[in-house]
Amino acid sequence: MEIPVTSTKAKPYSMGMKTDSSSANLLPMLTRRIPDDNIAHCSYESGQLEDPSKPPPPDMWTRTNDPITGPHTPQGVTIQFEKGIPVKVVLEGKDYTDSLELFVALNEVGKLHGIGRIDIVELRAAHLDLEGLVMDGKVRSLRDQFVTHSWSEILYNGLYFSPEREFVENSLLFSQQRVNGEVRLQCYRGNVFIVGRSSDTEKLYSEEESSMDSLENFSPVDTTGFININAIRLKKYGLQKLESGESLAKSRE
Fold this sequence. Notes:
alpha+beta, about 15% strand
């Protein structure tokens, strides 16, 4: 028996199929146009989407409203994190603490305001913003260079039950140990604006030490040694270029 594909000439961008346990419902479900859809995302591929010069068809967007038709006033959301995991969402005076409930609540906000048409940004934008406040800069840099890419590649290749996944995951868990705090957002017509972030437990950021108006714990003289040490190598490189007749400011062609 031939099983019809979900893509058609009229809707060439569909993918995936959905079934239920009833054999009577199997064929209608297979012939219906149903995307790869779950609580985390809805994706399409192939067909006219392979032409980058054309925009996606309007009826393809099933999980988000058109941002142009979104509400005229922004909507506030507060997301609280513990060890990088969202544990509480405050929305319209109501608290969501169950992991599924808060995910669904954020999806509804995203749909209303047309947010997340490329990524599910309701959580990601807030998470990354909080990391900038509480995560060590070098740890974050190494995570973004090596761990994030490796983790994505391992999962994409179906290697979840592997030693490399466990190794990389432990690095991720370590990086998130101190990502504790909350981020306040405004959602408006396809955009998420960060309006504030704070942490009651993490002390990596200090307003006093970060202020351009304060020299309480820092003296400009402290930079002299750093500059002189780096200058040794740079002077040698500059002399080498001058001896070969090259410009110090222009890259080699």
